[in-house]
Automatic annotation (TrEMBL):
<dbReference type="GO" id="GO:0071555">
    <property type="term" value="P:cell wall organization"/>
</dbReference>
<feature type="signal peptide">
    <location>
        <begin position="1"/>
        <end position="21"/>
    </location>
</feature>
<dbReference type="InterPro" id="IPR013320">
    <property type="entry name" value="ConA-like_dom_sf"/>
</dbReference>
<keyword id="KW-1015">Disulfide bond</keyword>
<feature type="active site" description="Nucleophile">
    <location>
        <position position="120"/>
    </location>
</feature>
<dbReference type="InterPro" id="IPR010713">
    <property type="entry name" value="XET_C"/>
</dbReference>
<dbReference type="InterPro" id="IPR044791">
    <property type="entry name" value="Beta-glucanase/XTH"/>
</dbReference>
<feature type="active site" description="Proton donor">
    <location>
        <position position="124"/>
    </location>
</feature>
<dbReference type="InterPro" id="IPR016455">
    <property type="entry name" value="XTH"/>
</dbReference>
<dbReference type="Pfam" id="PF00722">
    <property type="entry name" value="Glyco_hydro_16"/>
</dbReference>
<keyword id="KW-0961">Cell wall biogenesis/degradation</keyword>
<dbReference type="GO" id="GO:0042546">
    <property type="term" value="P:cell wall biogenesis"/>
</dbReference>
<dbReference type="InterPro" id="IPR000757">
    <property type="entry name" value="Beta-glucanase-like"/>
</dbReference>
<keyword id="KW-0732">Signal</keyword>
<keyword id="KW-0378">Hydrolase</keyword>
<dbReference type="GO" id="GO:0016762">
    <property type="term" value="F:xyloglucan:xyloglucosyl transferase activity"/>
</dbReference>
<comment type="similarity">
    <text>Belongs to the glycosyl hydrolase 16 family.</text>
</comment>
Length: 314
């Protein structure tokens, strides 16, 4: 009997993985590996320096890059082309240690072209205010709808500082899906309630690390402590596929995304298999939201006396 109980205990422990500061959590369910469907390209092929060039260190013949925050500067990369819909992914390993106030953003935006009515799709990885733990925040703006923040926050089910993990944005006319290691953590369905604020214009892909003390830590209550600098984030396994346009084109030049060519040559995620989540993906999404989500703007009644229209429609 004792041997049987010991065996059960070992099996139970094997189903768990530890996360810094939070103790054990169940392993995620199995899902389709969407990132295996698309080619990976070197950082140097798809992106160029946005700012902080001295804090960007290329590795592996340009396949990987370290982006660094220290006392002198943060740093960032931006895609060489803009995209209208598509699949955008990178494997990222976050800085270790005390990272309060540090933010790593992997996101899409066109604020440089449309400063007053821009679109944005955001992964924001937030250094925690008190504990040595990163928090994942997702957000979305469309047509300059910045007065309504659409943030959701989840605790990760792994330590993001120990290994590379994949962060993915799938954006098409049907929905926006945020995925971590191919597991959906959020889906924004393109329905009538959200259509006026659904991203609708070509965007660039960005990866940045910066000092967000004033924004991310209650007005600077827990600022970046540069005693722990440099803060080094590593990224690679870049995937950028979609309807791409050169940045010299007109900002609204989406002619290349019209139906004049086949779907496969325009938008690789417009097909039926990308229109809705599969049963496996829905199970993964429900698992994340049930076990790991701790904030959603749609439940923030102190912030919104009247909830945004999309909150009751999804």
């Amino acid at each position: 009997m004792a041997y049987f109980l010991l065996f059960c205990h070992v099996i139970f422990i094997g189903l768990l993985s530890s996360v810094s500061s939070r103790g054990p959590v169940y392993r995620p369910p199995s899902v389709e590996q969407l990132t295996n469907r698309f080619p990976r390209i070197p950082i140097t092929q798809g992106m160029s320096t946005l700012f902080g060039s001295s804090n960007i260190h290329l590795k592996g013949n340009g396949s990987y890059a370290d982006i660094i925050l220290d006392k002198t500067s943060g740093s960032g990369l931006v895609s060489k082309n803009t995209y209208y819909h598509g699949f955008f992914s990178a494997a990222i390993k976050l800085p270790m240690g005390f990272t309060s106030g540090v933010v790593l953003a992997f996101y899409m935006s066109n604020a440089d072209v449309f400063p007053h009515n821009h679109d944005e799709i955001d992964f924001e990885l937030l250094g925690h205010e008190k504990r040595r733990q990163w928090v994942l925040q997702t957000n979305m703006y469309g047509n300059g709808s910045v007065k309504t923040g659409r943030e959701e926050k989840v605790y990760l089910w792994f330590d993001p500082t120990q290994q590379f993990h994949q962060y993915t944005i799938l954006w098409n006319n049907h929905h926006i899906v945020f995925l971590v290691d191919n597991i959906p953590v959020r889906e924004v369905i393109h329905n009538q309630a959200v259509s006026s604020v659904y991203p609708s214009k070509p965007m660039s892909l960005y990866a940045t690390i910066w000092d967000a003390s004033e924004w991310a830590t209650k007005g600077g209550k827990y600022p970046v402590n540069y005693k722990y600098a440099p803060f080094v984030a590593s990224m690679g396994e870049l995937e950028m596929v979609g309807c791409s346009m050169q940045k010299t084109s007109s900002p609204m030049a989406t002619a290349g995304c019209s139906t004049n060519a086949t779907v496969s040559s325009l938008d690789p995620v417009e097909g039926k298999e990308y229109a809705t989540l599969s049963k496996q993906q829905m199970a993964g999404l429900n698992w994340v939201r049930r076990k790991h989500m701790f904030y959603s703007y749609c439940k923030d009644t102190s912030r919104y006396k009247m909830m945004p229209a999309e909150c009751g429609a999804q």
